[in-house]
Amino acid sequence: GALVERVTAYRTVAGPGGQTLTPLLRAGGVEAVTFTSSSTVRYLLDGLADGHRDQARQLLNGTALVCIGPATAQTARDEGLTIAAQAREYTSAGVVAALASVFADRATKETL
């Protein structure tokens, strides 16, 4: 027989970033937020506006939200957020490319 032992390799926990981001969003000082997992979507919503999710959604309204892939984008939509872009390649480089595309589109629209 075999002895099975459960080992937790890592644990995802929320950081304090939402508390720092709240006043910046209120002041209009954030143009984009990137999400690299479904947990980052949920943790940010929990961390913004002292956990009041409706207020958190309002704070993010007008901010370009970019997701790393379809699962993360679906979580964001399920949470009531509007996604500006989703990375074609599900990597950090893909997120950067999607973000650059969002701002290039904005610049084009502003010059028209």
Structure description:
This protein is mostly helical. It has one domain (17-111): Rossmann fold (3-Layer(aba) Sandwich). 51% of the residues lie in helices and 9% in strands. It contains five helices and three strands, in the order H-E-H-H-E-H-E-H. It has helices at residues 17-26, 38-47, 53-60, 70-78, 92-111; strands at 32-35, 64-67, 85-86. The protein has a three-stranded parallel sheet with strand order 1-2-3, with helices on both faces. The model has no long low-confidence stretch (mean pLDDT 92).
Which key phrases capture this entry?
112 residues; 3-stranded parallel β-sheet; 3 strands
In short:
The chain has 112 residues and is mainly alpha-helical. The chain has five helices and three strands; from the N terminus they run αβααβαβα. The longest helix is centred in the last third of the chain and has 20 residues, at 92-111.
- Cα-atom radius of gyration: 17 Å
Q: What is the total number of structural domains?
A: 1
**Order of helical and strand elements:** HEHHEHEH
CATH top level class name: Alpha Beta
Compile the SSE list and pairings.
Elements: H1 17-26, E1 32-35, H2 38-47, H3 53-60, E2 64-67, H4 70-78, E3 85-86, H5 92-111
Parallel strand pairs: 1-2, 2-3
Helix pairs in contact: 1-2, 2-4
